[in-house]
Amino acid sequence: MKNKNQMEGSLLTRKDIDKAAWSYIFFAQATQNFERMMGLAFCHVMEPVLKKLYGEGTEEYQKALERHMQFYNTEPQLGALIPGITIAMEEARAKGENVSEELIVNTKNALMGPFAGIGDSMLIGTYSPILLSIAMGLCIQDGNPLGPVLFGVVWLVTIVALQWFLFHKGYDMGIGAANMFFTNKTLVEKITTGLTMMGLIVIGGVAATTVKAGIVYKYVNGDMTLSLQEQIFDKIMPGILPLLLTLAVWYLMDKKKWSATKIVLGIVVFAAVMVFLGIM
């Protein structure tokens, strides 16, 4: 007798997909390692589904576990579409449709790159810096705790909702969603480039408003007082010193391969010297 939650023509119930979605949301990056990256977590998400589709202990079940233990790595938020698509393909294979093991594995491998590029550009490079700039603006002057609370709540709510929606959307669309990305590589590249540019602009704005590097030294000669910051540097370009400091940090990290710890210590020493001399 068919479960009341059973979807028409499906071997899985909506509850099965919901459980898999929650498993992905909580554990997508829980077992990150250098050998297979997110592979073990992906297999963990798939295991209950595979057990129901093929039966525990069967040869097909064991093969499915092996193919989903392989290397897997992408941007986890936008990449929630991929396990949904994979479940739909495994279900189609279990129903006897012409879906080979190679097709399932190759689909996963082909989607990892595009989703990683778009996801990193859209969420990590654009959405996260925008939220951070708003949160930092709320607390940078007086330490208002509303800033980090706002960022944490908004980020979690929107990201969890996005993962939930995309996971289910991937399952509903199945192989059709994969084909959309296979046949539109030019569009994917344009989206990635555009979002990367937007993210860099946002990060530049964050650096200009949150990095504090002002000259406090004033040149005094008789009745004349010359503020180097206001009357020279701000006239050249407001925020030029934070920009130069940010570029210097980028140069040391990207070109000289300084570690983050070394950068922080360098900034502390530089700031201490400038304050001691009364320059900054």
Folded structure, characterized:
By secondary structure, the chain is mostly helical. The protein folds into two domains: 4-206, no CATH class; 213-276, no CATH class. Helices cover 70% and strands 3% of the residues. It has eleven helices and two strands; from the N terminus they run ααααααααββααα. The protein has a two-stranded antiparallel ribbon. Strand 1 and strand 2 form a beta hairpin. The longest helix has 39 residues, at 101-139. The chain is elongated and about 95 Å long. The N and C termini lie far apart (77 Å). The mean pLDDT is 82.
List keywords for this structure.
280 residues; mainly alpha; 2 domains; two-stranded antiparallel ribbon; 11 helices; 2 strands; elongated
Helix and strand arrangement:
Layout: H1 14-27, H2 39-54, H3 59-68, H4 81-94, H5 101-139, H6 146-173, H7 175-182, H8 185-210, E1 218-221, E2 224-227, H9 228-236, H10 240-254, H11 260-277
Antiparallel strand pairs: 1-2
Helix pairs in contact: 1-2, 1-6, 2-3, 2-4, 4-5, 4-6, 5-6, 5-8, 8-10
